[in-house]
């Protein structure tokens, strides 16, 4: 099988695992191919891959159909908690910060529970709810439709929302990190939202676990070397050692701080 087809089918599996379900048309738009190509791919991907087709879309098979966000939030708990604590240690009381979508960004929100008088600008409803327990905080959310089951807001409205604010810190994750350091997402709207909050913050903090290094996704964002500080649970494989070295100390591994 051609490497392009293998890569595309791997991406389909990753996207469905992330989102739980997605239409054939949306997959075609994301991956830049026709709906006929996607349908041929889906013919090759079946129950053995944990996927099933239903009414013009592809979704996780019944035995794997747990809430995708809750699945992600429940993986590598120790590593994400350590990431959250280190990132939160950089945020003082009274700070203004962006918090983006994702389970690792949520771990930072949980670690901020002792902070007071924060102004939090976020499209991550779970993070907003965690930080709402401190009544001195101010929390600003975008309007629009809430994406379930992830409990977040996405789309062009979110890009415009972040464009209206400035913050001291931007806390965000990414779907994957390519070999050249490119930050990858599953949709260009997510890239644009991340770029907007990164550009509108004085300090950018990328929070990821080591599994994101080498993980594929179709939409390209900025490069990891553009980030002010990266917090990760532990060092990635040797293939990424040159990339880590180029960060010149701007990447922290939680295991090294224990």
UniProtKB/TrEMBL annotation:
The keyword Transcription regulation applies. Keywords: DNA-binding, Repressor, Transcription, Transcription regulation. It comes from the Bacteria. The keyword Plastid does not apply. Residues 5-60 form the HTH deoR-type domain. GO terms for molecular function: DNA binding; DNA-binding transcription factor activity. SUPFAM superfamilies: NagB/RpiA/CoA transferase-like, Winged helix' DNA-binding domain. InterPro entries: Carb_Metab_HTH_regulators (IPR050313), DeoR-like_C (IPR014036), DeoR_HTH (IPR001034), NagB/RpiA_transferase-like (IPR037171), Tscrpt_reg_HTH_DeoR_CS (IPR018356), WH-like_DNA-bd_sf (IPR036388), WH_DNA-bd_sf (IPR036390). It holds the Pfam family DeoRC. SMART domains: DeoRC, HTH_DEOR. Coiled coil: none annotated. This is DeoR/GlpR family transcriptional regulator. The lineage of its organism: Bacteria, Pseudomonadati, Pseudomonadota, Alphaproteobacteria, Rhodobacterales. The gene is glpR_2.
């Amino acid at each position: 099988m051609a490497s392009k087809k293998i890569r595309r089918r791997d991406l389909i599996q990753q996207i469905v695992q992330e989102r739980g379900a997605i239409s054939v048309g949306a997959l075609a738009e994301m991956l830049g191919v026709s709906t006929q190509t996607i349908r041929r791919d889906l013919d090759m991907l079946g129950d053995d891959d944990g996927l099933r087709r239903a009414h013009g879309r592809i979704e996780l098979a019944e035995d794997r159909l747990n809430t995708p966000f809750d699945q992600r939030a429940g993986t590598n708990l120790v590593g994400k908690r350590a990431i959250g604590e280190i990132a939160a240690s950089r945020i003082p009381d009274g700070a203004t910060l962006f918090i983006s979508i994702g389970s690792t960004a949520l771990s930072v929100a949980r670690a901020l529970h002792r902070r007071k008088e924060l102004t939090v600008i976020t499209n991550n409803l779970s993070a907003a709810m965690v930080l709402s327990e401190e009544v001195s905080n101010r929390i600003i959310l975008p309007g629009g439709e809430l994406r379930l089951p992830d409990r977040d807001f996405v789309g062009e409205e979110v890009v415009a929302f972040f464009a209206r604010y400035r913050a001291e810190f931007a806390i965000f994750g990414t779907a994957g990190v390519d070999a050249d350091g490119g930050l990858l997402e599953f949709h260009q709207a997510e890239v644009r939202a991340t770029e907007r909050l990164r550009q509108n913050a004085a300090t950018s903090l990328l929070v990821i676990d080591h599994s994101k290094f080498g993980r594929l996704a179709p939409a390209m964002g900025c490069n990891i070397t553009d980030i002010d500080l990266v917090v990760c649970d532990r060092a990635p494989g040797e293939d990424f050692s040159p990339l880590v070295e180029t960060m010149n100390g701007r990447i922290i591994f939680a295991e090294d701080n224990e």
